[in-house]
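Explain the record.
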Amino acid sequence: GSARKVESRPSGPPAPGWSLVYWTVEIGTFESGTLSYQAVTGGYWLQDQTNDPEYGAHAYIRPSSSPSSTPRYVGGYAVRIDGVQQMSSRPFVEPIQVQLVREVRTDKELIEGTELLIGHPYRVGEHRARFLSSVRIDGSLGLRIWLNAGWRVTFSSVVRFYNAITPRYYAVTRVVNGVESLPTYVEVSTEESNYWVSFSGLPAGTWRLYRKDSAGVYRLVHEGSGSAYVDYKSDEELGEELVLDSASSSAQLCVGWNRRAVLAEGSRLYITDAGRYGITDDGEVIDVQEEVIALAVVRGQLYYGTREGWYVLYGWGETLTTARVSSEPAVVGFVGDMLGGQEGAFLPGAVRDMSVRARVVRTQLTDVGVYWLTDTGELYRRYADGRWTKVAGEWRAFQYYGGVLYLQDDSGLHRLQGAPGSFRVKFTLPFESPMQLYQLVLLGSGEGVLKVLERGGSWRVVSGSMPLALDRVGHDYFSLEIEIEALEVSRLLLELEPRLQRERVR
């Protein structure tokens, strides 16, 4: 793979402004039903026929236009009655029923658990329905209203919706060149409940907004740009957890273990709190008999290395004990997820791999293989079948974070990118006599790219699933320049034919 320079951590953003909002929808278009309907300023009235024998009637009312930004889950809603008029001497006095509807224009699917009953006498003012659990809304939202005979009721066209939760705690970070800053925390403090939060003054460039969920974990709400954003998301829609990578850099060695940071300084080990990277009563400070010169985590077990050998730590707190697992001295500064020795390393569940005849100072097991860094700055990758490859460059250290390998050299931090384990080669075939290409075939598996340099200086390219073939390409008749990129190559077949040179007679 190739390496890309990574910038240092940016500064945290200033705290953004916030305000509480409730989601409102303008509903006031009659879709269908048996009630009389009349639009009025700011609302509409409904009335059942006074001379029919029916007990009451219903109407389906939909929004005049679809809102551009909507929540997916709501916890309640409120309708407002602006006026009530008795239209007969003996009207029915049963409750008015209001209910949310999906796809109000077509299927008119009633949403369970959203019924609102307004009892007689029908009070002018706001009437609110509170749900026992959050309700998912989608499609063309609307209302179904059932009204008794003998009444004319005027409704406001504005329907207010309430959140299913009451969010309070947020965190905001900046992202510059793929690097995230430490968070700035924001607390929404109010006596109101079941609101959504509208943010203003968000930082320039890319930012990430996190919210503490019901389990107390800050999780991603949104990554975006722009100075304003409204958080309409439920806990179910939140993304990845906020990770605070802020362990102390003053220690000589550090390794991640069981959501904690383990730091070594002299003959003392510091084990931080789970997920917080700070030393409190939940953390641990351990004194050992010898200077700690190496750290490793193998299959979830913590090891430390000294000049006398490797030790494993068992238990926690008062029950913590150690046991020696290897008498071979560790390499000074070794950190990894295998045990490092003078040459090679002890692989999990296996003997030492001696393929790398060098002092290994760091190891890392990833989803795509094992990386080993030697004390001379060479970085090797070991495949599952035992094959090895070397990453170009001279490196001082590396770190595996979020599925990405970061490499450090004298110029700074770099991000390893590209398809690991791919095959790429460029070569030139010289000819003693003029030749021309008849056919070139590349055999292998997976996707590949086959290139031949044409006589005019441009490349003739074919790509896709192998096998790949090129026929009769005009090129320099005394040489053929070829470039191959593929995941796995088994054979290259080349067929040439002599080029007849004719001499012009003057």
Remarks:
- The chain has no helices and 45 strands.
- The mean pLDDT is 84.
- The radius of gyration is 35 Å.
- Residues 273 and 281 are 8 Å apart (CA to CA).
